[in-house]
Specification:
Elements: E1 8-11, H1 17-27, E2 33-37, H2 38-44, H3 47-54, E3 59-65, H4 69-81, E4 86-90, H5 95-112, E5 118-122, H6 130-135, H7 142-155, E6 160-162, H8 165-175, E7 180-183, H9 202-207, E8 212-215, H10 217-220, H11 225-240
Parallel strand pairs: 1-2, 1-8, 2-3, 3-4, 4-5, 5-6, 6-7, 7-8
Helix pairs in contact: 4-5, 7-8
Bound molecules: cytidine-5'-monophosphate.
Length: 241
């Protein structure tokens, strides 16, 4: 059985290598992975991955790849060769693009003799509502599109999707318990919501069947990040009961 801390991913939404080093050193023993997103990757480039790996951290690269199948496949090869544990592509890139990424990951991992990273699809960004989807020509509710794209990602051979905690249970029902859900928008009991709109507590997110929780500021901006992470792990444990 996977330890609960393996299911906690800390979003490193910072700009400097020094902040990364401090957070990874502090939090390494307490969390499962560190998320490197657009902000950090654009500031520091792939050397940030080496820095985190050198400190023993596992990495989720959140670059949400979206391009023609060949380009996404080549970028997927590179990320796999860097030894990251998880990365993502946009489901709206289509079945062929996702399948090309999945094949590239398997081939690159085999060639390198390393474990295959988990390949996750981004479905509908949580910043988009029904009207925004209509504007870009997508009919129906965001939930309908999320489910349709989650099934497409599964058909393409991906390991799971990014989803809001509320969508997690729908996706599990549609795709089965083996299909992973990676959930941002989590706020511990009594914490600031910040700019997150549809939030769930760590307990609720685990209850809803989220496989991994992505949490940033409630940990990284806390006066004591280790204590904040430990309190979140305790809330996650409650969700298992
Ligand atoms: O600080 P906070 O806990 O809000 O960080 C959540 C992280 O998850 C951020 O890096 C954010 O970009 C990411 N994310 C999100 N909502 C999505 C997809 C990703 O908050 N739908």
């Amino acid at each position: 059985m996977q330890e609960i801390k393996e299911r906690l991913i800390v979003a490193l939404d910072v700009d400097t290598l020094q902040e990364v080093e401090e957070l990874v050193e502090l939090l390494g023993p307490h969390v499962g992975m560190f998320k490197v997103g657009l902000q950090l990757y654009t500031s520091l480039g792939p050397k940030v991955l080496q820095t985190i790996h050198a400190k023993g951290g596992k990495i989720f690269v959140d670059l949400k790849l979206h391009d023609i199948p060949n380009t996404v496949a080549q970028a997927s090869r590179v990320l796999t060769a860097y030894g990251v544990r998880m990365f993502n592509v946009h489901a709206s890139g289509g079945l062929k693009m996702m399948a090309a990424a999945a094949r590239a990951v398997e081939e690159a991992a085999r060639e390198k003799g390393i474990a295959k990273p988990l390949l996750i699809a981004v479905t509908v960004l949580t910043s988009l509502g029904e009207e925004d989807l209509q504007e870009i020509g997508l009919k129906g509710s965001p939930e309908e599109t999320v489910l349709k794209w989650a099934k497409l990602a599964q058909e393409a051979g991906l390991d799971g999707v990014v989803a809001s905690p509320r969508e997690s249970s729908l996706i599990r029902a549609a795709c089965g318990p083996g299909f992973l859900t990676v959930t941002p928008g989590v706020r511990p009991q009594g914490a600031e919501q910040g700019d997150q709109k549809r939030v769930a507590t760590p307990r609720e997110a685990i209850r809803q069947g989220s496989s991994y929780l992505v949490i940033g500021r409630p940990i990284t901006a806390a006066a004591d990040p280790v204590r904040a992470a430990q309190a979140i792990l305790a809330e996650m444990e409650e969700g298992l009961c």
